[in-house]
## 1
Amino acid sequence: MKASMNIWHILGIDPTHDTRAIKLAYAGRLKQINQEQSPSAFQALREAYEQALAAPPQPPAARQPDALAGLPPLPPPQPGQRPLPPARTPFSVLPPLPELPLDAPLAKPIALELAPESEAALAQQASQRWLPGPRPQSYGRAGPQLRPGPQPPAPAEAADMICQALARLPAEQQRAEIARWYAQPGWGNSAFRSALETALVTALEQQFSQRYHMVPAFHQALGWEQWAAHSPNCAAIERLEGRWHARIWLQKFDSWPAEHPMQRALQLLSSPADPLRCAAFARDPEQLSAMLALIEHLEDEDEAVRRYAIDFGAFQWWQQYGRTLLLALVPDEAPPQRARRGRLARLAAMSFKRKLGAILLVLWTLLRLL
């Protein structure tokens, strides 16, 4: 076994019984050996070559047991039939087309009828020079224009239409009506909405006495509470809301009779301060008490009420007059802490002595003016 392995190792091939492969291996190794310099190597190669040719064939290796040995044999294939592919679509169940030989005639012959051109026509085509064709007509006339969408009216006209529609509705339906107007086609443009807001503020200010009740609806629908500070109409919106607060505050006095001292005090505060008129008004203790009570009530109200419900200069004059009167009535004491409530009741219950002191102070003021 060792000699057999040396034979194949000298030849440089695996054990084989192919004579041609042995001869090729011997010829290749023979080119690598010089017979004169290494006769022993040549002698070993020659002996290995002769022994390889005379080596007996090796017995075949034992066959591994087949896993399919216990299964029945497959049926022999039948000639002339091919297995059909599995059905994937409903079309695969159609019957196969019959196979025809290549030389079978067609069911419908193909008729190609070509009219040959004359020699004159071919010569004329060859002599013609290529020229650009006429300009397409689509470039010569204007193409179809897109139909413009609905255009909104002018901002002033739209603002007037919205105010007229709101005037016919109760207050709880006005916000939904404003949203309906703003949702119309063509009203979503930002430039138009900005101009419309300006027109609405202008329309409300110009006819404020008739349209003041619409201000809360616009305040909620247009989001003035969040976005008024960023609007170009910020000052106008703030003035409009201040006037609305002042109007609501003035409605508290609508139920009072016109001859009431509080109504007279409010009417006097609505005009610029006149020292003569104010001195004459203060001669009446009831009117003076009502004025001082109204001044203290206004100090607790919002600044918008003092700016738009009354004359702010007159309010400052009477405010200073009330402080001077308080110091004159109690000269040796510091001004007491103002009570925010019950001022009108305390002034109404003022003693005769204090009323007399107020009258004397008014007379002293008149003498100084004269």
## 2
Amino acid sequence: MAAERSKTIWCCFCFVNVTNATCVLATLSLCSCIVSFFITASHDAPKSAKGFEYLVTFLWTAASALALTAIGCKIRRALLPYLIVNIIFTVYLTVYVPSYVILYLLMKNSTDIQFSEHDHYFLRETRYIRNFVGLPICLWSTIVVWRCYRTFGRDASEELDPL
């Protein structure tokens, strides 16, 4: 039991750390995008869509940092924000990634659909690779953190119950 608990905590620490590093890198790249957006005054993408993406990334970064701290301190409740944000982000990517693939296939295989230059640029942007990579990371880290959440809960109930 102790070995299983130790393994769960170690796996959770590793995967949350990987997720956190990914989020920090994504946040840094998005910060540079924000700076370049204001410097060049580019209007290639709607501000609301960019703003939503920035918000989700910052929330994910903050929640994963909190989860990393929670694992170190074994605080069960502090894992909840990470799980909630991760589930929201997973649902977002689960809807977004297939719709992106469908839209790309429609654009590639149909001569009836007319796309503007903005749409072609929007579909070719390399930042969408992050979403394809982000989906398995979200799913994997959510499962691992959930296991850790359950382990912390089991430990707490065992400590309270002397029998």
